């Protein structure tokens, strides 16, 4: 496919300094001249007023604007864009003496900022990140009114390649009664996938039982799974059927299977292999026909190596493995999921909120979501509960996200203008502390508290990463 066949991506440059605009334009043209995957066009205007006219005349996908302009300034320009509900990422360009203004622009919806003199490598990285954001926003705005859940997947929403690949696998395994193991981080929707497998199976009208292996005390889970006979233990006053027997002819979903006690793993293996279940205290086994679907957020291979999980049971469960991708690997789906939850909770709480502000969508997509879909759902629920208008704003969501750029200043209790009242060395030290604390917390959250992975992702040796943790997280320990 040639560049001409690709969708045209339009970048608008807004700068009243002709020399600066010329340098920036030439740099961008050289960068994209060698990029065979994109067809990029540039429009240059000198003032914000001209930029607004250009936006009315043609579709713009990305804006680079000087933060200080004659006439309408950069902040007012951003406010006008917000009022127009345009989903266009804006990168503001600032001189060294206008960094505070650039930070203010971020608070008013700008996607990013670049300081002069412009470093070509930094410029390229920021541009590509903004282009990716633009594509995500554009795609989701086009899909927002489309049906996005295929038949049988009413509770599963997404258009990302990773998610669509997963749904194709679900369709393939659902008709076959093979045992399925679903692996993925906490909050990735493993239980919804299990339900979809059952709903798409030939036995969708038969029983479906959910067993949370972490919910029952070890002394009770055997009775819950296999049932018991009268008199089997104190309190067993009548015979009781277990969840496995109740699911006869249908499916059983074993959630967090890695936490099943070792003593019960052997009994479960026998049920899977022989298709028989014996109640606690009973002397006779009962034949059952059950399909098992299991899920875990743990590394089953490591648990097997440590002797915490039976190898033979793992092999029986691991006939077909489905991997639920984390939300950070399916960012295209974040706006769709957010709007789905927004509509759900607006109806539940009787709220008038109907949509997300474009800058709020940008914040959602930029966040790492260490808690995945469950965390996104909780954030939207709280935001809708507190919302008094008809749209969720960036400010409303930022207050609920723990690791945002605004949170860095709060980490040391200083607002932007308060730094200016301190000597340079002291202000720099406090700003560095704020950034480091925010960064370390963010990396740890993104990797579920795993120090080794957080250090690797940061490009910092693990020992050094731990030293930073001890210094900056001492008050959080």
Write a structural description.
This protein is an alpha/beta fold. It has 4 domains: 3-143, Rossmann fold (3-Layer(aba) Sandwich); 161-323, Rossmann fold, CATH 3.40.50.300; 328-401, Helicase, Ruva Protein, domain 3, CATH 1.10.8.60; 412-472, no CATH class. It is 48% helix and 13% strand. It has helices at residues 18-33, 48-57, 74-83, 99-107, 120-143, 161-173, 190-199, 218-226, 243-246, 262-274, 300-305, 311-317, 334-349, 358-366, 372-386, 394-398, 405-411, 416-419, 424-446, 451-458, 462-472; strands spanning 8-14, 39-45, 62-66, 90-94, 112-115, 180-183, 208-212, 227-228, 240-241, 251-255, 276-277, 286-287, 291-296, 320-323, 355-356, 391-392. A 5-stranded parallel beta sheet has the order 2-1-3-4-5, sandwiched between helices. Strand 3 (62-66), helix 3 (74-83) and strand 4 (90-94) form a beta-alpha-beta unit. The longest helix is centred in the N-terminal third of the chain and has 24 residues, at 120-143. The two termini are 54 Å apart.
């Amino acid at each position: 496919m040639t560049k001409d066949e690709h969708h045209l991506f339009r970048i608008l440059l807004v700068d009243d300094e002709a020399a600066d605009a010329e340098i920036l334009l030439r740099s961008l043209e050289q960068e994209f001249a060698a990029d065979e995957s994109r067809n990029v066009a540039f429009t240059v205007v000198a003032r914000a007023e001209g930029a607004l006219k250009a936006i009315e005349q043609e579709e713009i996908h990305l804006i680079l604007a000087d933060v200080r302009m004659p006439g309408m300034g950069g902040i007012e320009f951003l406010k006008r864009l917000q009022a127009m509900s345009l989903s266009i990422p804006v990168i503001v360009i600032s001189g060294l003496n206008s960094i505070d203004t650039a930070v203010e622009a971020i608070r008013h919806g700008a996607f990013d900022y670049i300081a002069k003199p412009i470093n070509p490598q930094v410029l390229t990285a920021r541009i590509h990140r903004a282009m990716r954001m633009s594509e995500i926003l554009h795609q989701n705005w086009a899909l927002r009114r489309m049906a996005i859940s295929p038949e049988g997947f009413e509770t599963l929403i997404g258009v990302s390649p990773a998610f669509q690949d997963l749904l194709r696998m679900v369709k393939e395994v659902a008709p076959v009664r093979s045992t399925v193991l679903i692996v993925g981080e906490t909050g990735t929707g493993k239980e919804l996938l299990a339900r979809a497998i059952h709903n798409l199976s030939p036995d969708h009208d038969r029983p479906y039982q959910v067993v949370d292996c972490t919910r029952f005390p070890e002394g009770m889970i055997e009775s819950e799974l296999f049932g018991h006979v009268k008199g089997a233990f104190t309190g067993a006053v009548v015979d009781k059927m277990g969840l496995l027997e109740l699911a006869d002819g249908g499916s059983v979903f074993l959630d967090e299977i890695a936490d099943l006690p070792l003593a019960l793993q052997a009994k479960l293996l026998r049920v899977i292999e022989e298709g028989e279940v014996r109640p606690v205290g009973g002397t006779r086994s009962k034949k059952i026909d059950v399909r098992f679907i299991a899920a875990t957020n743990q590394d089953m291979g490591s648990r097997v190596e440590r002797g915490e999980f039976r190898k033979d049971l793992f092999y029986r469960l691991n006939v077909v493995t489905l991997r639920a991708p984390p939300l950070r690997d399916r960012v295209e789906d974040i706006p769709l999921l957010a709007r789905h939850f927004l509509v759900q909770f607006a109806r539940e709480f009787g709220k008038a909120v109907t949509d997300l502000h474009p800058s709020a969508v940008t914040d959602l997509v930029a966040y790492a979501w260490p808690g995945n879909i469950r965390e996104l759902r909780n954030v939207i629920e709280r935001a809708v509960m507190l919302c008094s208008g008809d749209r969720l704003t960036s400010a409303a969501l930022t207050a609920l996200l723990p690791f945002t750029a605004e949170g860095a200043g709060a980490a040391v209790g200083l607002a932007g203008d308060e730094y200016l009242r301190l000597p340079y060395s002291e202000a720099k030290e406090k700003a560095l502390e704020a950034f480091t604390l925010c960064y370390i917390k963010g990396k740890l959250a993104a990797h579920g508290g795993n120090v080794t992975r957080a250090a690797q992702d940061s490009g910092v040796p693990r020992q050094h990463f731990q030293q930073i943790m001890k210094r900056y997280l001492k008050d959080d320990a």
